[in-house]
Design a protein that fits this description.
6-stranded mixed sheet, Nucleotidyltransferase, domain 5, single chain, alpha/beta
């Protein structure tokens, strides 16, 4: 439906793909964050319930039943605990699966940073500044969790403060017409991982709609990889590098940056572009 609307808008001459503004929004899941089970608590619960099951089995086998409270049904108590253990086992397996996927992503990012650092040192002949990249740790953390009502949702920080059980909805919008040209839902909390998928969606649109020329995004999308990927897709990146203070001094707002070096990398070129005055771009 999105594509059909865009094609109609293009045919009646009110839309032509150009600058695309990207942003994300957290949408609440149909589940409570209080139904989330952490890996640490799951392990504690599993240990406790297994001990209770062993105790119940011992009582069931004992000849003397005098210490069993009135109204207690050992088979029912065992069935409830077996059901709970099954739910915990599934939750732990899901958390461990996510942890393995995260480790794969983080390891790839770590190796890329190490390679870029080594290449920079080789090119400049100087030791790179800053701390060495830290390798990721494998396996789930104590706070990794899964929601027992909606396991596909995630607990994410929200703009108003605090955390909610949500999804991260991404939208790429044509700057001039405000028409949505790319939209999808993700489980990633961090928007930094969402620029490349948006580039792919925008690039795959029908040629009848034209070609996206620019990508505009806030600092949550900034990374060297994202800036380079935007250029490689034939688009000019305008991605905020960091958060800026409100109400900067008047003359700072109109100050031209120093000349751009001839050998500037994609990030340096973008920073220079974003600091230039509109009429000079």
């Amino acid at each position: 439906m999105f594509v059909q609307i865009l094609l109609i808008a293009s045919k009646v001459k009110i839309f032509k793909l150009g600058s695309v503004n990207l942003d994300g929004s957290k949408i609440k899941a149909n589940a409570s964050k209080h139904k989330a089970l952490s890996y640490e608590y799951a392990c504690k619960q599993e240990e406790q319930i297994k001990a209770e099951v062993a105790d119940l089995l011992q009582k069931a086998e004992a000849a003397d039943k005098s210490d069993i409270p009135d109204g207690m049904s050992i088979p029912e108590e065992l069935a409830r605990r077996e059901k709970r253990l099954d739910a915990i086992a599934k939750a732990k397996a899901e958390i461990e699966k996510r942890a393995a996927e995260r480790y794969t992503r983080e390891q790839a990012a770590y190796e890329e940073k190490v390679a870029q650092r080594a290449e920079k040192e080789l090119t400049t002949g100087k030791k790179a500044k800053g701390k060495q990249p830290k390798p990721p740790e494998s396996g789930p953390t104590a706070k990794d969790q899964v929601n027992l009502t909606d396991e596909e949702s995630r607990i994410m920080p929200t703009s108003g403060g605090g955390f909610e059980q949500t999804y991260n909805v991404q939208a790429g919008v044509d700057t001039e017409t405000k028409l949505i040209v790319a939209a999808y839902v993700t489980q990633h909390t961090n928007d930094k991982q969402e620029l490349v998928p948006t580039l792919e969606k925008v690039s795959s649109l029908s040629e009848e709609l034209g070609k996206a020329t620019e990508i505009i995004a806030d600092s949550g999308y900034f990374s060297e990889t994202n800036v380079t990927a935007t250029e490689e897709n034939g688009m000019t990146p305008y991605i905020a590098v960091d958060r800026q203070e409100h109400h900067p001094p008047l003359w700072d707002r109109f100050k031209e940056p120093p000349p751009l070096p001839e050998d500037a990398d994609p990030v340096t070129r973008m920073k220079h572009r974003c600091n230039r005055q509109p009429e000079t771009i």
